[in-house]
Every structure is written in structure tokens, then in C-alpha cells.
Design a protein that fits this description.
Layout: E1 15-18, H1 34-47, E2 51-53, H2 61-73, E3 78-84, H3 87-97, E4 103-110, H4 113-120, H5 124-139, E5 145-150, H6 157-170, E6 174-179, H7 186-199, E7 207-212, H8 219-228, E8 233-236, H9 250-259, H10 275-286, H11 307-315, H12 343-352, H13 359-373, H14 381-391, E9 393-398, E10 401-406, H15 411-423
């Protein structure tokens, strides 16, 4: 198999290791059938991820076959699979990635005293010996071997350094140091990777990797901190799915590099315009929706209801948006009409629906919509059409005076309009253009 790991890659290059199909799928409710795993793997290839962790072959024969089918079909990305430091796991992993043009065995064992004593019930020396034997066996079957020290961030520092040095000597080409339970903070993470890389004598022979969980909501922040500390591979998942509170979200990490290249001058191989389509595919396959305010791919990520925000975005979207929806492949429908919306937003949305409104007619429609919005969480297109139709006016001149003749077609809407007009003493001409949503 081809050697795919190169410590001599450019210092600003960060490898994206996607574990949606392994760690992500382990989350309750996110299980995928083999055909669905292959479909998502194809999309991850289109997205441009460097490494796809396709599964955990020892879990079942169907899982092993799913990994093998992905390894047989996809030629550009590295196809990895997970194996404990057990011979049966490793043998199954070897079989699963055998067809891969670029295959990786990812083997792991816990290194923290808590895990060694409470879970594995082995000594530090037994842990060290087991890790070395597993890496040596894997290296006989592929040039690309990744070793993970589970619960690395809570491990004894000196012992962890011993393990890392030994597995590198045994043939590991990537060293992954997970924050398995999402306990670390960004400042600790920078210091952790900096110290590890500076303390392990043969650290320059491998790529260091980070894998951060989101138990404290710091998964992405810790992943970025790890890169600043010297890691050059980031393990992450689409939509941040994964065990418990999930993993660091791939789309957030990638766009952080993209938007804040001034502070994080790193490059990735991701086609950002495929981020939203990939997120949507995962949602469709699992039936698990993305939270509406999810960064980058959530429904509200590029939507605005507050009038001040809407007014700003209509004039220059940079006032309230730091990236373009098109950059991540998402639709841009920024104006969500609600009780905080302003007159400009109502005018623009009506124009999108084919209604050109000006002057008092616009104000009447605006006020009628705001009255309805008090009782509803969201104003849809049907609401707008109904109100415009009801308030549509014919202007005529009578004896030098301009008067309005309303044609009211819906009694419910008429009531709202009358109530709205009677409830306020504010002259129509002084209605605020931007609405009342705050801008801070």
C-alpha cells in the first residue's frame, strides 16, 4: 500500500480526518446501513476530506464489509478503520482495508491511570507493551499506521511521552492525542501539544493529531488550539455528531480557518461549497435534524428577523454576516419576517413575491403584518400574500385630497388591520424603516 503520511508536508497544511462514519455513527440514533455509509463516504470524498475513518470492523461482519466496500471504491482519500490493540481487531481491520489504494489502520489503547486501573485493569508497562505490539503488527500490513492514546489529556505526562516515543519507534506514522471526555480548555490544549512535541525525541517523524469531544462545548475551540500547538491533523465529524455531546464539527473548523486566516494561517483541502450539501445528506440518511442555530449549516445561520439586522444586510450583507452562504453551499434567504422586522424587510420580501409597495400602502401592509406577528412565531409567504391582497389600495383624488379605498377580502385580516391602526397613535409616516430588533 502507498505511504500516505508525510511529516514533511507544508507547515501550514492541516489534514482533515473525518470520523462521521465511525465515532459519529456510534451516537444513539445515528446508525447507518452499509449502503448508506457508502453513499455518505462518496459525498465525503467530494467534500475533499483527506482521511475517511470508515468504521470499526470488529463490531460486526456487516460493518467490516461496509468498510471494505468503501476501501474498494474510493481511491483519492485515505481509508482508515479503527481497531483496539487486540489481535482479532487488527486482523479484521487488515482484511477490511485490504482493497484500499491508501489504507490506514488506526489502533488505540487508553493511557490514563483512571482507564488503566478502572477499565482495563492493567499496569502502565502492560499498556506500553500492548501498544507497541499492536503498532508493530499493523505496520507489517500497511505503511500508514495511526496510534491513539485514549484519554490522552488526562494521562500522566511522562508516561504518555514514553508511549508515544515507543510506538513511533515501532512504526506509527500518526499520533492522535484525544480529549476523550471533552475536559480540556483551549489554553491547556495549546500547552499540551507544544510540550508533547517538544519532549518526545522522535516527534518530528510523525504527524500529530487531535480529536476533541464537545462535553463542555469546547470541541472546536480545542481543535483549533491543538493546531496552534503543533497538531497537523484534526479529527472531526459532519454536524459535530458523536458520542455524548458529540465531536468537533468539521464545518466549523474549516470555516474558522477560511474566515480567520489572519489569525490561523492554515490550509485545508476542503471544497467549502460542499459543506451544506454534506450536512443535508447526513440529516436525510439519519433522520436527525441539525439544531436551527447551528453554526455554518443551521437553518438560522444566514437568516435575520431583527429589523436593524435586516436593514443592514439589505444595504451591505457584511454588516451582519462574516461569510457568504454560497461559500458553504447554503441557500441565502436572509429575511425572516416576524415581530422584530422593519419596513425595508417587508418591502423587499413583498417585492420578491411580486408586490411592489410604496408609501402609505407599504406602511399599511407593514403594520398589518406586525399585528399578525404578535400572535405568530413566523410570517410565511401565505400570510404576506393574504395581507397584501387585503390591504391593496386604489388611490384617487377627490376635490384636491388624496384618499384611499381599501378592498378587504378576508375578515380575519381586516380585523387585524383595524386593530393595528387603532392601537397606535403613531402617524403612518413616522413608522421606523428598520424595525425594533436590537443590533448588539
Amino acid at each position: 500500500m502507498t505511504a500516505t503520511n508525510t511529516p514533511n508536508m507544508p507547515r501550514d497544511r492541516v489534514l482533515i480526518f473525518d470520523t462521521t462514519l465511525r465515532d459519529g455513527e456510534q451516537a444513539p440514533g445515528f446508525s447507518l446501513r452499509p449502503a448508506e455509509k457508502l453513499e455518505l463516504a462518496r459525498q465525503l470524498d467530494t467534500l475533499g476530506v483527506d482521511i475517511i475513518e470508515a468504521g470499526y470492523p470488529i463490531a460486526s461482519m456487516a460493518e467490516a464489509e461496509a468498510v471494505r466496500s468503501i476501501a474498494a471504491e474510493l481511491k483519492r482519500p485515505v481509508i482508515a478503520c479503527l481497531a483496539r490493540c487486540h489481535r482479532a481487531d487488527l486482523e479484521r481491520a487488515v482484511w477490511a482495508i485490504q482493497p484500499a489504494a491508501q489504507g490506514r489502520i488506526h489502533t488505540f489503547i487508553a493511557t490514563s491511570d483512571l482507564h488503566l486501573q478502572a477499565k482495563l485493569r492493567i499496569s502502565r508497562e502492560q499498556c506500553l507493551e500492548t501498544a507497541v505490539d499492536a503498532v508493530r503488527y499493523a505496520r507489517h500490513h500497511t505503511y500508514d499506521v495511526q496510534f491513539s492514546a485514549e484519554d490522552a489529556t488526562r494521562s500522566d505526562f511522562d508516561f504518555l511521552c514514553r508511549v508515544i516515543e515507543a510506538v513511533i519507534k515501532a512504526g506509527a506514522t500518526t499520533i492522535n492525542l484525544p480529549d476523550t471526555v471533552g475536559y480540556s480548555t483551549p489554553d491547556e490544549t495549546v500547552d499540551f501539544f507544544t510540550r508533547i512535541i517538544g519532549s518526545v525525541p522522535n516527534a518530528d517523524k510523525v504527524v500529530f493529531s487531535t480529536h476533541c469531544h464537545d462535553d463542555l462545548g469546547l470541541g472546536v475551540a480545542n481543535s483549533l488550539a491543538a493546531v496552534q500547538g503543533g497538531a497537523r491533523q484534526v479529527e472531526c465529524t459532519i454536524n459535530g455528531i458523536g458520542e455524548r455531546a458529540g465531536n468537533a464539527a468539521l464545518e466549523e473548523i474549516v470555516m474558522a480557518f477560511h474566515v480567520r486566516s489572519d489569525r490561523m494561517p492554515y490550509t485545508v483541502n476542503i471544497n467549502t461549497r460542499q459543506l451544506y450539501p454534506t450536512s443535508e445528506m447526513l440529516t436525510a440518511l439519519t433522520g436527525q435534524p441539525v439544531q436551527v442555530n447551528k453554526a455554518i449549516v443551521g437553518r438560522n445561520a444566514f437568516a435575520h428577523e431583527a429589523g436593524i439586522h435586516q436593514d443592514g444586510v439589505l444595504k451591505d450583507r457584511r454588516t451582519y454576516e462574516i461569510m457568504n452562504a454560497a461559500d458553504v453551499g447554503a441557500p441565502w434567504n436572509p429575511l425572516v419576517l416576524g415581530k422584530h422586522s422593519g419596513r425595508h424587510a417587508v418591502q423587499r420580501r413583498c417585492a420578491d413575491l411580486g408586490f411592489q409597495l410604496e408609501g402609505d400602502e407599504l406602511i399599511s401592509v407593514y403594520r398589518a403584518l406586525m399585528s399578525i406577528a404578535d400572535d405568530r412565531k413566523h410570517l410565511g409567504d401565505d400570510d404576506i400574500i393574504e395581507v397584501v391582497t387585503s390591504v391593496r389600495t386604489e388611490t384617487r383624488t377627490v376635490e384636491g385630497r388624496t384618499v384611499e379605498t381599501r378592498t378587504v377580502e378576508t375578515r380575519t385580516v381586516e380585523t387585524h388591520i383595524v386593530d393595528a391602526l387603532e392601537a397606535s397613535s403613531t402617524p403612518l409616516s413616522t413608522m421606523h424603516e428598520s424595525g425594533y430588533g436590537h443590533g448588539v
